[in-house]
Amino acid sequence: MKPPDQQLPFSFARFVGSLVLLVPGGLLAQQPREAAASNAFRIEITTNHTGGRYAVGEPATFSIRAFDGTHPLDTGSVDCSLSADGYSVLESSTLGITGRPLEMRGLLEKPGFLRCEVILHGAGERELAKGVVAAAYAPEEIPPSRFVPPDFDAFWEEQRDRLAEVPLEAELRPMTQGGNEKADVFDLRVKCLGGAPVSGYLARPKRAGARSLPAVIWTHGAGVRSASLEQALLGAREGFLSLDLNAHGIANGQPEAFYKELELGPLQGYPAQGRENRDGSYFRGMYLRLIRAVDFMAAQPEWDGKTLAVVGHSQGGGQALAAGGLDPRVTFIAAGVPAMCDHTGMIRRRISGWPKLVPLLSDGKAEPIVAEVSRYFDAVNLASRCQAEALLSVGWIDSTCPPTSVYAAYNQLRGPKQMLDRPAMGHAAPPDIQTAFLEALKRHAARTEVSTLPVGPKKNPPTLLKVKTSKPKV
Known about the structure:
By secondary structure, the protein is α/β, with parallel strands linked by helices. It is 22% helix and 30% strand. It has two domains: 12-141, Immunoglobulin-like (Sandwich), CATH 2.60.40; 152-469, Rossmann fold, CATH 3.40.50.1820. It has a ten-stranded mixed sheet with strand order 20-19-18-17-15-16-14-13-12-21, sandwiched between helices. Strands 4-11-10-7-8 form a five-stranded mixed sheet, with no helix packed on it. Strands 3, 5, 6 and 9 form a four-stranded antiparallel sheet that branches. Helix 5 packs across helix 6 (315-326). The longest helix has 17 residues, at 282-298. The chain is globular.
């Protein structure tokens, strides 16, 4: 097993996408990196608009070339398709390679992303190379697939009230591993509603004074793993009260076999668990742990009372949107390629984000019970309640958390917001995005004009925090 300080908080192993380069003639797509490493074949696709943006109804032209190394191919064929962000194929054809650029043309009549995929096959239909590129059609105008349920706020108010009845009791176990002369580190558990406690690693600069530290909660991508000690320490090194939050409320720092057993056992297929019932949904517990984590951070004497941020990618990005929508004490969110967005996209004949929560019936329609329940846990609807400052990233060729779903959530945010568009990116959390998130977080914490933050529910004010300190964990 990797020691806790080497574990990553995001599922980087899951982030696989085609490489797309921006060139003067528009967007250029190449084959996936893993294909490039195994052979010299590649596909290049350019759009006729630099930057790949189009007005609704405006035709887009994709120019396609196939190469063997640096040499253009002049024989063979490629399979080409245009789709509405991977949901429905609008056009497909097999084009013969002649040595000259091939072309595919298409358009969208409503806001969204027009995705062009090109595959070069070899003998026996073996895939030699694949290129993917997308054209954006007024993405800032993509609406939610469904409106917020009329009792949405009442449902979550009831959940917060029920959580407030659970005593805010925390157990902090000092960590000898990771702690140093500059930071104290703890394995944290906090009593919660929803079947599991808040679990994570808490790091704070040593000798921090009262009300001296901004706070940040780091949230995880999909999968089953320990909290990340390194991520918690990263925040502390930057001067934050820093909590790396375990998505599932499970024990941290265990052998790899422990997490594999959970992943193949009680947590197998966890996104779909309880999806037919609001009170049984797995995401209910996950989101309640977010609120309780905010309760805990806001109750710390070192918290400055000014900055409380939530930062994550993929599933962690969806959690950041949820935290911002459910708790007004959250002042900043950074959500990279966020999941859990627009679960009911198929109702508008468009793609939904991970985890594709709503199944389709044999007639192609959404399963009605799950579709209805999913609305209460949809990051699009939660974003509509979020007034925190927000920074999001989106990959235009992301097939896991497609850009259509991400923009549907982004467009509902009510506070200051910015989108980091990455036409060349699939499902990824690259270093430049992580750096941009951290720098934005630090700027937010350094701001001087601050509105008064609401306190937690009246039934459970932060002053009720009870802390138990256990023996050091080696």
